[in-house]
Inverse folding.
């Protein structure tokens, strides 16, 4: 794996001042940086949103085709809610100051069809460390999409703004079927499994076991216990995955692949970036819909992506409050703080960016 250094001499006063201001907020209000009662209640709700419909189907309470489709639909939102609001914080170590709590809730990633170790490497190590750096940030690495101007252009990409929703919708389905295996092999070659205290053999065995019980729980048991043709069960399962995949992709992509944010590529191993890590996060990340209480609640505060990237160890329940501190500190140091007033505006910017990257017009604009 390439090594990359950020420029620690670039405005070091900013990150010192920012950390001091944010820490002072928690000290002045005498509150923990981790989950509170509201977060625990949300956790119970999101977990129930996923498991209750499944239980209703497996116990024969809901047996009709359209009834089960409704249950799978609710489960799709439950999957997204767990992924965005619970598992995400836990795997960052932000949910609790107790490691076993974070580990337990972080394991919920496997109920989305993903392998939690791979998720932590892709998201915590690669995406958070090297946001929007081509060749290092796995979140912008996609063979059927062009997410960065540093990536090669293909004729098919000119249509990516139109076919993107389809590929977004099958994201978690791909995690479940193939991506985890592909990633595990690559992470072994790049010595990334060692950081998680895992050998390839151990990780592979865990992966196979977790996929097996997931198949048994969400596919085999419904086919056996629900009095419907197997293909109708599979329609519901795939529909659940597509709802979750689309929601997850749109939330994360609208925070990084938009018209305002910057993109980078390390020229060679050992390259030193222009900015320090904190300023790099502000240049590659954007917020949206800061006034939407319901959206922010459901998506785990990830409309405050800037705060999440700067302070991933803080539970998202606090992002709205500290966003005011982050924005003010950034303005004091004349550092950009990108945000869209609504989610619709962020979506428009994202799809405009996809179109510009696909047609090559973005390359001409920055040339």
């Amino acid at each position: 794996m390439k090594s990359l250094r950020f420029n620690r001499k670039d405005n070091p006063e900013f990150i010192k001042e920012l950390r001091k201001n944010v820490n002072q907020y928690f000290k002045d209000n005498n509150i923990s940086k981790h989950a509170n009662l509201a977060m625990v209640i949300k956790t119970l709700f999101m977990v129930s949103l996923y498991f209750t419909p499944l239980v209703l189907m497996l116990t024969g309470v809901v047996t009709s085709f359209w009834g089960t489709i409704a249950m799978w639909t609710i489960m799709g939102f439950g999957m997204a809610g767990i992924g965005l609001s619970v598992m995400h914080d836990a795997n960052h170590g932000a949910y609790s100051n107790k490691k076993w709590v974070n580990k337990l809730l972080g394991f919920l990633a496997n109920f989305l069809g993903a392998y939690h170790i791979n998720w932590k490497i892709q998201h915590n190590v690669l995406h958070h460390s090297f946001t929007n750096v081509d060749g290092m940030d796995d979140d912008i690495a996609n063979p059927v999409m062009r997410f960065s101007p540093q990536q090669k252009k293909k004729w098919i990409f000119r249509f990516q703004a139109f076919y993107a929703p389809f590929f977004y919708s099958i994201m978690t389905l791909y995690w479940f079927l193939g991506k985890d295996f592909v990633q595990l092999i690559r992470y072994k070659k790049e010595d990334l499994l060692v950081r998680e205290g895992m050998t390839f053999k151990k990780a592979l065995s865990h992966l196979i076991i977790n996929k097996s019980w997931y198949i048994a729980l969400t596919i085999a048991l419904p086919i056996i216990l629900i009095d419907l043709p197997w293909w109708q069960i599979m329609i519901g399962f795939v529909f659940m995955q597509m709802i979750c995949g689309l929601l997850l992709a749109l939330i994360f992509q609208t925070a990084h692949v938009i018209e305002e944010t910057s993109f980078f590529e390390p020229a060679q191993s050992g390259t030193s970036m222009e900015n320090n890590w904190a300023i790099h996060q502000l240049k590659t990340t954007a917020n949206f819909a800061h006034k939407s209480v319901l959206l922010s609640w459901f998506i785990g505060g990830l409309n405050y992506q800037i705060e999440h990237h700067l302070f991933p160890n803080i539970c998202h329940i606090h992002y709205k409050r500290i966003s005011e501190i982050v924005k003010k500190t950034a303005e004091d140091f004349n550092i950009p703080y990108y945000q869209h007033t609504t989610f619709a505006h962020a979506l428009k910017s994202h799809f405009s960016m996809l179109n510009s990257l696909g047609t090559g017009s973005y390359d001409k604009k920055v040339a």
